[in-house]
């Protein structure tokens, strides 16, 4: 009987202690809760932004076939080489309804959505339904690299 009573008292006291701690934590968490997310935010920001300043090469000149071109979908650019050593670049966004052009073959840039074709030399429409040329992009050849100019 005495032991049972002692346990009951201890459990009872422990229960009160836990309740007091939970109450204390709950009230403190509400007051200082803004501090923790703010401490995490700066750590994620630098990793999400690429290092700026230096121009990144779009491609190597050797990667662009003479009389053809290459579509860089992630950069929304098509780089062509109409003649050996002459490089051109255009947006890869089709002027018809905004699809990404898909390939370059037989001297034209081809949009897979509705079949528009654009000349690799100047981006002009060679076959519709697109009615306007692809927008030109300025590029420079630096060494063996092609960079946005
Ligand atoms: S979006 Fe390119 S042909 Fe229609």
From TrEMBL:
Compositional bias of kind Low complexity: 37-50
Region of interest called Disordered, as start-end residue ranges on this chain: 31-56
Keywords: 2Fe-2S, Disulfide bond, Iron, Iron-sulfur, Metal-binding
One protein family per Pfam: Rieske
Cofactor(s) required, per the database record: [2Fe-2S] cluster
Lineage: superkingdom: Bacteria
Family annotation (SUPFAM superfamilies): ISP domain
Sequence ranges assigned to domain Rieske in this UniProt record: 56-148
Protein role: Iron-sulfur subunit of the cytochrome bc1 complex, an essential component of the respiratory electron transport chain required for ATP synthesis. The bc1 complex catalyzes the oxidation of menaquinol and the reduction of cytochrome c in the respiratory chain. The bc1 complex operates through a Q-cycle mechanism that couples electron transfer to generation of the proton gradient that drives ATP synthesis.
Protein name: Cytochrome bc1 complex Rieske iron-sulfur subunit
Species in which this protein is naturally found: Streptosporangium jomthongense
